[in-house]
Design goal:
Structural class: mainly alpha
Number of strands: 0
Shape: elongated
Strand content: under 5%
Number of helices: 2
Radius of gyration: 14 Å
Order of helices and strands: HH
Helix content: over 70%
Distance between the termini: 10 Å
Amino acid sequence: MTITTLDIMLPIGLGAIFAVYRYTQNLKVDPKTALPKAAADGVKGALGLAVITLGYKFISQS
């Protein structure tokens, strides 16, 4: 199993896009806590996609 640059960049990029989206949504509801909530959602999204990507690469090797 080799990890490529795309395997690293994909979760980070999509996590950042998800965080920006969540920030715009949270800004409408609660501007005071919009940034911390959006950052936490972005990190969770990036970690989740990283786990899925690594799991797929592990399974597809078999």
